[in-house]
Amino acid sequence: MNIRESSYGYWSSARAFGWVAAGACMGIGNIARLPYLMGQYGGWVFLAAYVVALLIVGLPILVSEWALGRWMRDEGSAGFGRLAQLAGSSARWGWLGGIALLGAAMVLSYYSVVAGWSLAYTFRAAAGSLVGDAAAATQRFLDLAQDAERSLAWHTLFMVSTCVIVAQGFREGMERAARYFVPTAFGVMLLVGMVAFRYGDPAAASKYLFAGDFSRFGWRGAVEALQQAFFTLALGFGAMLTLGSYLPASQTLGKLGLAVVLLDTLFSLLSGFVLLCFVMEAGVAPAPGLQMLFQTFPQALPTGWVGIAIGTPFYLALFIVTLLSAAALLEPLAHYLMQRLRLTRVFAAVAAAMLVWYLGLGSLLSFNVLADMRLLGQNFFEWMQLLSTTLIAPVFAILMCFVVANLPRELADSIAGPHETFWMRGGTFLLRYPTRIALLVIILYAVGLLDWFEQLWS
């Protein structure tokens, strides 16, 4: 069965799609997590393992999602159901697309809360109110997170911005935004990086990132590399599946996937280097994730206009890349409503955004009003993270690997398109063996079973 024509149109060019896909990957986790992991697990040793993991885990799944989305030209649940029927299986496989949509809604609900903080910090940096010692930086962040009204305002503003992009269409909205936002984010980070050579400590940052130390790598470093390679590419939530549905049948995917992986990795390294230049100069210990962005970095900023000139563009770049990532997560939800309920794009985008906004209230209130409400020791925000990233995304990916690796040859070739036989067959081999094993390891590590095995062994 040949690839159908898209009823919604196509991306204007491969380059435009590359900007969109790269923007979907360049989120908050990339900026803070990869540099921290490199410092914790052996510098270039971890980076080398991460690159290998990208090639055997991230890239095959990324290209497969694009290829499946392009072939389906439909929302995920209907597309997987039709694929299963053609492969001689049950149409009940359609639920696979449904769990991806659920994961996208859950991730975006708490991601919007965090991204709203980045917008708040952009204005605070411009006002010169971020500079301070460790206690002041921590208290400033807690004041924001624990203030339900202010957090609600930033959460709402961010979701409205995301909705506006998606409502305009994938070309007029996402593509146009990505054409400007992704190069702007790179340009801003390069400019701040040049300033870092004058006001930061690039030597210490380079040593932290790239000094090799095999003794710090271990099995945990290998698993963290696998985990980061999977999550950095926005896989498992139907985003890449939906973005791929607007690709023409003639578009080659393998080289495009390599380009997106390269852009994503370069941005992670560049932004991490910028962060660490100022953190090391201030003599502050690097911290993981949100703590690095909203507590450690602000206290490392120089005083006066220099701190304003550094902090404002940095948080602005952080905001625009989170906006692109959020739009990529909202798109499959809107696409589902357009296909199933026959809503116009505007109504579908608004309905999906409202659903996510309501779901995000639970995460927002987890830092203040609902802070003491916990289930098995986890609050609502932590449960959203646990269920979406620890279970839904890797489970979707491992099941998708099973589906793709077991397709009849003729059907697999039609999904790959006329120019992708080599990439599809090589990718199918990876999906059948190393990628599935790696995803299983990621799941076991995320739920704590590998730590339990280590304790049992020792």
UniProtKB/TrEMBL annotation:
The lineage of its organism: Bacteria, Pseudomonadati, Pseudomonadota, Gammaproteobacteria, Nevskiales. This is Sodium:neurotransmitter symporter. One of its GO terms (cellular component) is membrane. It is found in: Membrane. InterPro entries: Na/ntran_symport (IPR000175), SNS_sf (IPR037272), YocR/YhdH-like (IPR047218). It comes from the Bacteria. It is a multi-pass membrane protein. PROSITE patterns: NA_NEUROTRAN_SYMP_3. The chain crosses the membrane at residues 12-32, 44-63, 93-113, 177-199, 229-249, 256-285, 305-334, 346-371, 383-405, 433-453. Keywords: Membrane, Transmembrane, Transmembrane helix, Transport.
